[in-house]
Design brief:
The complex is a heterodimer of chains A (319) and B (330). Chain A is mainly alpha-helical and 319 residues long. Chain A folds into two domains: 83 residues, no CATH class; 184 residues, Orthogonal Bundle (MetI-like fold). Chain A is 76% helix and 1% strand. Chain A is globular, with a radius of gyration of 24 Å. The N and C termini of chain A lie close together (10 Å). Chain B has a domain of 208 residues: Orthogonal Bundle (MetI-like fold), CATH 1.10.3720. Helices cover 63% and strands 0% of the residues of chain B. Chain B starts with 46 loop residues before the first helix and ends in an 8-residue tail after the last helix. Classes of the chains: A mainly alpha (319), B mainly alpha (330).
């Protein structure tokens, strides 16, 4: 277990270092340099020389990278020219909101999709299984921007069941003070994940039911209920935890769309706003922070996986 | 499949069709009825014919193929039959056409916020969506196949380093990476193709690497090595051709994914610059006016995206079965 965790943590650190390097390379690729991006295309050479000297951009690339990494370690992500303040300060109140949105959507997705998958196995190849399959396929195929737009039109504008957008002020926890306003964004973000996870849960459960230990349990006269919940379920859940870690980047990606559709003030909306104003340092800053958060999230999911799987919990092997 | 958010995203419907009795969408045929392509089948005819036979048995796949062909014809031949002005914004503003009007005679799907005819715009934007989808899927597949084959073939530390690079890029949520790239390089149609390909070659690289790892220890590859065949020959003539099933199936799914990624970018406002358009941009413009009840600005583009994406996925599923590829996506 400890060996697994150690290796997995080292791997996460390597990935984070790699992402830092990639984000730095991206910042070096800006056509015309950061100077033109900030001062505008009409900046003279003199302006740029001055700008570069001021910001240390005339140094060799390696020194710049060194200063960049040292800055990161001090929590300095660069300077947002649109907001006229440090990227860290801009991000600080946005990040918790995205974490709350992604976290809630993921939990909701797990709470719905795992029982749904079990239900489909219990009633396999009967009409209710097919109906659930049909729905999950529909939501799987539905792009989240379309789903979000349709949900707003149907349930916010036409039926007026929910507000059009969630509360945009206050701390991340205030979002829960108005759950109705939070409902549509969470459903939009969770829908694809529910569809995917319930399918995965169904096939994972089906696989578990073909195992020898299930046959043994049946031979000993265990009821169907006991076989499913007592023997198969825990084993079927293990692949879901792996999938959870792998799906996190996709869910976070979906948060960009959801936040844009519902005007939810998180990292995704901030990134879109920064990008449409060509605020490249801010875009790169949010990308870096969100990726690090995702990598940590995947690491936590793998931690759960290690706890759930006795082969890893007790064994020295396992990858 | 999907979800830029995940779009995408992905691993599930491709999961293990051999064990699951009823893979999604394939209720019509059970796995037992399917003829294993190139296997111990009793039917006559070449391998290609057998593959085609398995494919045609799948009604959903045939429907998907019809939708794809129909959509290509609609977007590329349609404008010759249904003339509309989709490029000259000034002419539209100067004309008598009223913006945001619903379906009526002469404009079956109404007009958008500028006054462009939506049916014509659907064709015009569809050209972009389809071209970018096909082209970036092609680029991503080619790059990914070469990268994955080299990585798997060399093995040991180059393989580890090359694959770590893939892991790192895959850990960046795809839309953030796309937005960063589009901001830095400013969008044009060609750039969108490159940028979408840049975030999409990672999965095929992994798949082909895995395939190569198992292929390179086969007897026929060892035989070529013993006979002094060059590495280039082994990879180009022996490994990649044997992975062609995986490649074709991946490329099919990737067209759907690329169209979705472009649509997501368009929806966020980073699609092709005006007066050009794509389905995502059209949907975005329509959604901005969602409260006004102008449904004709939302549904056509939305339906077009879903239709094409689902069609490519049906075809990809059927190809996977026909070519017997066990593709665990991602």
């Amino acid at each position: 277990m400890l060996g697994f965790l150690f290796r997995r943590t080292i791997q996460a650190i390597v990935v984070i270092l790699g992402v830092v390097l990639i984000v730095f390379v991206l910042s070096q690729l800006i056509p015309g340099g950061e100077c033109k991006a900030v001062l505008g295309p009409k900046a003279t050479i003199g302006n740029c020389v001055h700008f570069n000297r001021l910001n240390g951009l005339n140094l060799p690339v390696w020194d710049q990278f060194y200063h960049y990494v040292v800055g990161l370690l001090h929590g300095n992500l660069g300077y947002s020219y649109k907001f006229n303040q440090g990227v860290t300060a801009v991000i600080k109140e946005r990040l918790p909101k995205t974490l709350v949105l992604v976290g809630t959507a993921t939990v909701v997705a797990l709470i719905i999709s795992i029982p749904l998958g079990i239900f489909q196995v219990v009633r396999r190849n009967r009409p209710s299984d097919y109906v659930a399959t049909g729905f999950s396929f529909m939501f799987y195929a539905m792009p989240s921007f379309l789903l979000g737009t349709l949900l707003i039109i149907w349930f916010a504008f036409d039926l007026k069941w929910f507000p059009v957008s969630p509360p945009s002020t206050g701390s991340a926890w205030e979002i829960f003070s108005n759950p109705r306003a939070f409902f549509l964004p969470v459903i939009t973000l969770a829908a694809v994940t529910i569809a995917a996870f319930s399918r995965y849960m169904r096939s994972s459960m089906m696989d578990a039911l073909t195992e020898d230990y299930v046959r043994t349990a049946r031979a000993k006269g265990a009821s169907n209920r006991r076989v499913i919940y007592g023997h198969a379920l825990r084993n079927a859940l293990i692949p879901i935890l792996t999938l959870l870690g792998l799906s996190l980047p996709a869910i976070v990606s979906g948060a960009v769309i959801t936040e844009d559709v519902f005007n939810y003030p998180g990292m995704g909306q901030l990134t879109v706003y920064a990008a449409s104003n060509s605020d490249i340092p801010l875009v790169l800053g949010t990308t870096l922070v969100v990726t690090v958060a995702t990598v940590i999230g995947s690491l936590l999911a793998d931690l759960l996986y290690a706890i759930a799987d006795p082969r890893i919990r007790f064994g020295s092997t396992g990858s | 499949m999907t979800d830029p958010e995940g779009v995408h995203e992905d691993p599930v419907f491709g999961f293990d069709t051999t064990k699951t009795p009823v893979p999604i969408g394939f209720e019509a045929i059970s796995p037992d009825e399917m003829v294993p392509a190139g296997g111990e089948s009793t039917s006559t005819g070449g391998l290609g014919l057998q593959i085609a036979r398995v494919f045609v048995q799948n009604k959903l796949a045939v429907a998907g193929l019809i939708v794809i062909v129909g959509m290509v014809l609609f977007c590329f031949v349609g404008p010759f039959l249904y003339h509309t002005n989709q490029t000259d914004q000034q002419a539209v503003l100067n004309s008598s056409v009223v913006a945001n009007t619903g379906p009526a005679k002469g404009q079956p799907l109404g007009t958008d916020g500028t006054g462009f005819d939506i049916l014509g715009r659907l064709m015009y934007g569809g050209q972009t969506s389809l071209i970018v989808g096909f082209a970036s899927a092609a680029v991503a597949t080619i790059v990914g196949v070469i990268y994955g084959a080299l990585s798997g073939f060399f093995g040991s530390w180059p393989d580890a380093a090359l694959m770590r690079f893939v892991d790192i890029l895959l850990s960046i949520p795809v839309l953030f990476l796309l937005i960063a790239l589009v901001t830095i390089f400013h969008a044009s149609e060609l750039l969108l193709i490159i940028v979408i390909a840049f975030v999409s070659w990672l999965v095929p690289a992994r798949l082909i690497r895995g395939e190569t790892l198992s292929l390179r220890v086969r007897e026929y590859v060892q035989a070529v090595q013993v006979m002094g065949g060059s590495r280039r020959r082994i990879i180009g003539r022996h490994i990649i051709p044997n992975a062609v099933g995986t490649i074709v199936v991946f490329a099919t799914f990737q067209v759907a994914d690329s169209i979705l990624l472009l649509a997501a970018l368009g929806f966020l406002g980073f699609g092709v610059p005006a007066p050009g358009t794509d389905w995502g941009t059209m949907l975005s413009n329509g959604a901005d006016a969602a409260g006004n009840g102008w449904w004709w600005q939302i549904y056509p583009a939305g339906i077009a995206i879903v239709l094409v994406v689902v069609a490519f996925n049906f075809v990809g599923d059927a190809l996977r079965d026909a070519l017997e590829v066990r593709l665990q996506r991602r």
